[in-house]
Design brief:
By secondary structure, this protein is mainly alpha-helical. The protein has one domain: 23S rRNA-intervening sequence (de novo design (two linked rop proteins), Up-down Bundle), CATH 1.20.1440.60. The protein is about 85% helix and about 0% strand. It is built from four helices and no strands. The longest helix is centred in the last third of the chain and has 29 residues.
């Protein structure tokens, strides 16, 4: 159940970030980093559904978690550099935090069930 929710919210999150990035002028290398990390979250969650076992499943979710932390970094940087307005970033940052919490919960459950 959680994995399906993760698939849906990570896809919606990636779409929102892509649309946001289309509005940012300049800073192409930074925008590229934000797009790559935010879309990688959902891609790895999707890959986890077809993992080659429990350890591979956990590994894919851990990669998603790392990408989630990276995405939070880029959002924070964009705000501090005045590339992104704090109000626009707040909802994205909160949504990213929700994904992070779900990933941590899913990883912990998978690890517990793996023993």
């Amino acid at each position: 159940m959680k994995e399906n929710k993760l698939v849906d919210i990570s896809m919606n999150f990636a779409v929102r970030v892509i649309k946001l990035c289309e509005t940012i002028k300049g800073h192409y290398s930074l925008v590229n980093q934000l797009e790559r990390s935010s879309t990688s979250i959902g891609a790895n969650i999707r890959e986890a559904k077809y993992a080659h076992g429990k350890n591979d499943f956990i590994s894919k979710l851990q990669i998603s978690l790392k990408e989630c932390y990276e995405t939070e970094y880029w959002i924070e940087l964009f705000v501090k550099a005045d590339i992104l307005n704090r109000e626009d970033a707040k909802d994205l940052y909160n949504q990213c935090g929700t994904i992070r919490k779900l990933l941590i919960s899913s990883i912990n459950t998978a690890k517990k069930n793996n023993n």
